[in-house]
Amino acid sequence: MSAAIEIPYNTTERPDTGLYNAKLGVWLFLASEVMLFGALFSTYVLLRVNAEVWPTGAQILNIPLATLNTVILILSSVTVVMSWTSLKMNNLARYKLFMGLTLLCALGFLVVKTFEYRAKFEHGLLPSTSTFLAIYFTMTGLHGLHVIGGILVNFYLWLPGTKMWRTDPERFTNRVEVAGLYWHFVDLVWIFLFPTLYLLPGK
Amino acid sequence: MSDHTSGTSHIKTYLAIGAALLGGTIVTVLAAKVHLGIILGIIVAIIIASIKGWLVAGYFMHLLHERKGIYWLLALTGVFLVVMVGLLLWTYGDQQGTPHGIFQAPAHKETTHVP
Fold it and tell me: Which chain A residues have a beta carbon less than 8 Å from that of B18?
């Protein structure tokens, strides 16, 4: 007689919400993330409208590198959704390939960001230099932390976490789906950060 | 077999959305090079970013075919977001016309000397 207690609705949908637990959980988490980044975007707006002068991003920031990072994040969004589709098609080898590519893109994003930050620091452009740089480092720094969080989760699902595929493939597929939802959100935030910080005209 | 066929059609959709997002990125960068003025420049940038965001949320995050519960959750989040942003802007509007705005400290702070 087994004493193990099975947590319900790991794979089956709850009758009241129509969602399995992890999906509802990750959407609640993403809702809190919307508020977090919403507060920062509001802060940006407030700082900008109160400033007498505000630089155009191109005067201080590196547009080609930021564009490259945008492309990298979009590609990673494609690869992460392809990894989930691969599991849906019962193809673990292809899942591993696409999740590996996602991790490569994520690391590439951080490497590019590191080059960008280093160039700023070498030129003495610090968060304390100006209000613009303060909000730039705050928003991109927080976004970068989210990228690191995504890397950790995706790495777990890429290597050690894969063993669940053998015992409970549906649950593992759901895990990849919710991790993918988080990753798409990280991409979504960058899609708004990129024009806001780098491209908007100054005053 | 049907899973495989459905998966293949999804892959085509995802690739098309990925291509559209890359195209949108090019348009965003090119639009920033055109001197549209501050207001129009901001409006154009927000419109392009919103379209790209809608593609990511709608297709990659499957929001176009999601359960009602998620829509309610996001709607509630939207309400809270509007209230939060509204309060900030209200504060800003409330401070308009005051001598120092809401961030700058008074240039000369009066000090009281107690003998």
Answer: 74-75, 77-78
